[in-house]
């Protein structure tokens, strides 16, 4: 993430140059410039020296950005692994039978399954909440998040009192769109002022405060399937699961942004002071939604421990998985909210511009007309690497080169549903099956045939005493046969290997 550019925001003042390093280095620059004022000729020796130094700096810039990109991917892998482990532990180790014993309360098997599945659904909401959190989209009122958390308590005292609303359900009434530091939407504040002047209803969670279906708003063409989530009603209509900024001509011709800034400055000065529409200041009360989800999951772990429903090692395992999720969330937040210092960015870009500006004067004598394509290629190469480093430094947004967070969330969703599809059967229901051949390759009989032979197991060759001696010999023969197959490949047939072992 690149720090906010202070030079083109608000009123222009000379103090804004303190965001660069110009105010620190101008005496040295002036001094060395004065030494060369008598001779304005360019020496080509500057080309390899400055070019090498500048290339090293740009390489370091790109490498550090790519390292952040890779760290973001690794941390999302940690979220997926911890989510799978946490879901597996809850689904398998939390018992279904509940009796009135101590802090336990009797409930049916169906109620226990619903309880576990609901908390695994809440675990599924964690990566979705992290995705919106990293993109600066506050609150829970999104099509892919709200259906998974809508059952959570909303009020501290269980009474429908707005003053007791819990942090998770606070929404910023003054924000119509998710907060994005990288989106410049000048018509946003004007539209809100017009709404206020027309007396339209207050916006809650980004939409008019009226009961409506959750399936409203702009839909992206891919990567969201509402059919896989509950269809619940929401007081504020839900925002889209994906809401990338719309491309404008300024994204394709960045130079026009300078003209846009100048026109706005002129219009602001020409407009009467009382008619200017300014955004009202307010206090943000939005909560850290991923952290709130971790709190509910941790509370469930504490409930299981207090009720003696799980053993202490399982409690420790659940705690470790939750700690992994929280630690990963902190690292992702640090990566997303640690901007590149603007002074570094500005100085590097200005240095590159100056190098490219003086490059033709240094190479025109030796290469002549080739200077034109050569300069174009050098500009493409150096500016391209600089822009790549800037683009991938925050890999959590909607750019084409960013990480596909929606795909990661859907992958975790599929895996958690695969875990809950496991029926936790008794091993005796499937172990002693005609399809199970446990002693292959030394003994090809299935489990049903082996059990039918009684306690005195006998090897197929009957060359050992019945019982455990035969079992052990069969297992040793299986090892020898597998060792022969895997080491010698096709040199031995299966029958030849078994005959050699029996001999």
UniProtKB/TrEMBL annotation:
<dbReference type="InterPro" id="IPR044669">
    <property type="entry name" value="YneE/VCCN1/2-like"/>
</dbReference>
<dbReference type="GO" id="GO:0005886">
    <property type="term" value="C:plasma membrane"/>
</dbReference>
<feature type="compositionally biased region" description="Basic and acidic residues">
    <location>
        <begin position="170"/>
        <end position="200"/>
    </location>
</feature>
<keyword id="KW-0472">Membrane</keyword>
<protein>
    <submittedName>
        <fullName>UPF0187-domain-containing protein</fullName>
    </submittedName>
</protein>
<keyword id="KW-0812">Transmembrane</keyword>
<keyword id="KW-1003">Cell membrane</keyword>
<keyword id="KW-0813">Transport</keyword>
<feature type="transmembrane region" description="Helical">
    <location>
        <begin position="352"/>
        <end position="372"/>
    </location>
</feature>
<keyword id="KW-0406">Ion transport</keyword>
<feature type="transmembrane region" description="Helical">
    <location>
        <begin position="40"/>
        <end position="60"/>
    </location>
</feature>
<dbReference type="GO" id="GO:0005254">
    <property type="term" value="F:chloride channel activity"/>
</dbReference>
<dbReference type="Pfam" id="PF25539">
    <property type="entry name" value="Bestrophin_2"/>
</dbReference>
<keyword id="KW-1133">Transmembrane helix</keyword>
<feature type="region of interest" description="Disordered">
    <location>
        <begin position="163"/>
        <end position="217"/>
    </location>
</feature>
